[in-house]
Amino acid sequence: MERISWNQYFMAQSHLLSYRSTCTRLTVGATIVRDKRIIAGGYNGSIAGGVHCIDEGCYVIDNHCIRTIHAEMNAILQCAKFGVPTENAEIYVTHFPCLQCCKAIIQAGIKTVYYAEDYKNHPHAIELFEQSGVVVEQVPFDKEIFQTFAVNQ
Ligand SMILES: [Zn+2]
Ligand SMILES: [Zn+2]
What is the pTM of this model? Predict the structure, then answer.
């Protein structure tokens, strides 16, 4: 029996999370992993109880939707909320993190970033990751994997 690789497994989880996104501009998912265990997950959406972009439209200022908390932030904040250490963890994200999330990832002590798709790839974010010794690796995700494993098992 064929098994899904760890990278594809965690990346699949992030894509699954992205399907919960409430922002129509971009759907992003993030999974924080330690010792091959998922410790948190997040997607980009409004604060708890807030109105959703999918219902009210995005709240756009300077070409950014300012309503949403990004997936990476939501995953890190979930760890903060429940007191789960993020030191030396890894994060799997559907898209290359924005500059704000990049800084949060570094500051949370996360040491490896796996991302599926390029997204603007801010030069300063790349620089900061390098500077702080965070390993960044692209892991292309094949959405067919859901189908493949559903059929083969
Ligand atoms: Zn939005
Ligand atoms: Zn971000």
Answer: 0.95
Cα distance between residue 87 and residue 37, in whole Å: 14
44-63, pLDDT tens digit by residue? 999 999 999 999 999 999 99
Of the residues 72, 117, 130, 144, which is catalytic? 72
Q: Is residue 118 pLDDT above 80, yes or no?
A: yes
Mean per-residue pLDDT, 112-123: 97
Q: How many helices (H) and strands (E) does the chain have?
A: 6, 7
Give the closest ligand to the alpha carbon of residue 70. 2
CA 150 to ligand 2 centroid distance, Å: 32
Whether 117 is catalytic is no
